[in-house]
Amino acid sequence: MEKLEEKKQLIDYSDRIIGDIQGDYPGPTIIAMAGIHGNEPSGIEATKHILKKIKDNKTSLHGRFLGLIGNIQALQEGKRFIDEDMNRIWFTSILDKIRRTPIAEILTAERRETKKVLEIVDPILESAGNENPVIFLDMHTFSAEDGLFVISTRDERNITLLAQLSVPLIFGIEKALHGTALKYFQNTGNIGFAFETGQHFSASARKNATAGLMCLLVASGVISASDIDDFPRYYDYLNAQTEALPHKVEFLYKHIIEPGDEFEMRPGFKNFDKVKKGQWLATDRHGKILAQRSGFVLMPLYQDQGEDGFFIVEECD
């Protein structure tokens, strides 16, 4: 497989709020954030589809459904990021500084984007309670072919909710990824997970994201399956995409890319391909990079931007 080129997007992403529907009945608030990386627009299109479906069906909501765009400038340029990875700066101290700094004095595009996101989500988090929690869904795609999965903690609330989606659950990766929006939302005491839906810009990624989002809204009780005339179509489609994949896996290893490494993933690896310890997976300027553990390879990198070369995971209970 050749490296996936960043693709210029010719879409106007000027409106950060994709849609915001407040239900007539109490319930959780689902925040679906898409496009925190500018080469990952699939979640935006999926969120638009679901919002339209809800409006067309005149569906009653128990709670609130908010769709947000993360990195508008990077999306407009079709790049993962402009100055720095927007999904690696969500540390409490950095967010505090971003909140306190006038936007004209913020030096990077991603921190300016983050400030605008915080202006929307901060009031929601401040008003959240145990009875009606916030459920944060961080929607992503990847550069490899095939696969979809959810990155989650072992929080019982997460597992209970996500088990209804029948999508592979990846545990432990959040410990190896620092400064993510997902980890920030989890640390607020709310429910949070990342949904990796497929290869960048692919039709399958959009379909996977759409089906997953619809199933999440039903599983969380925000909408009723009976209110969506063709809900079984979404559920059956999602199950068909995941029936051959492991249900739960645990993080084992991450290959870190450092500046100047000249990292190159060997062609042909797909998500959940089995690999053996010692197998040749990639190359950098020092030579071959061999698998340090046996297991499944996850998110092999076939793009220029990014600091995570690949992950290795193993099936677990």
Report on the structure:
This protein is α/β, with parallel strands linked by helices. The protein folds into two domains: 17-242, 3-Layer(aba) Sandwich (Aminopeptidase); 250-315, RNA polymerase II/Efflux pump adaptor protein, barrel-sandwich hybrid domain (OB fold (Dihydrolipoamide Acetyltransferase, E2P), Beta Barrel). 30% of the residues lie in helices and 26% in strands. It has helices at residues 42-56, 72-77, 92-100, 109-127, 156-162, 173-176, 181-187, 203-219, 231-242; strands at residues 17-22, 25-34, 62-69, 134-142, 149-152, 169-171, 191-199, 248-256, 264-265, 273-275, 280-284, 287-290, 295-298, 308-315. The chain has an eleven-stranded mixed β-sheet with strand order 1-3-2-4-7-5-6-8-14-13-10, with helices on both faces. Strands 9-11-12 form a three-stranded antiparallel β-sheet, with no helix packed on it. Strand 5 (149-152), helix 5 and strand 6 (169-171) form a beta-alpha-beta unit. Helix 1 (42-56) crosses helix 8 (203-219) and helix 8 crosses helix 9 (231-242). The longest helix has 19 residues, at 109-127. It is globular.
